Amino acid sequence: MSYDDHLDRALTETDSSSSASRFSLPDPSLRADGSFTLLENLNEIVTRCNREADHVVKYLQTELGTAASLDDGRLRLTGSFKQSRVREALESYAEEFVICPDCGLPDTKLVEESGTTYRQCEACGERTRAGN
Predict the structure, then answer these.
(1) Helix or strand (DSSP H, E) at 118
(2) In angstroms, rounded to a whole number, what is the distance separating the alpha carbons of residues 108 and 42?
(3) Could you name the CATH architecture of 25-98?
(4) What is the pTM assigned to this prediction?
């Protein structure tokens, strides 16, 4: 086996650096409850995003155009929502507040400075305004 063959094989077997393999959102677990929709796995989602629940809830309220309240680790959304719509909103949240636009990794934290929120990447050092 040539050097190039060995190198190709090694790269194929060790390619775990892509953001898709490192970060994926859990599918939202929704349950209808009268005129409300319950997001059952909010805790799992905020843990995966490494964000505060209040921040995610506020974003979802705005994105879905509804009122919401926390109820024992679940999110109670006013109205009826399809899983695809909630997933779309969560993916948008991750794109704006979790994933680094430079390196594509989820290793970011939110930093507040002079009333502006920045997304600071702990992997590459990139600092961008969050929520663009």
Answers:
(1) strand 116-121
(2) 20
(3) 2-Layer Sandwich (3.30)
(4) 0.80
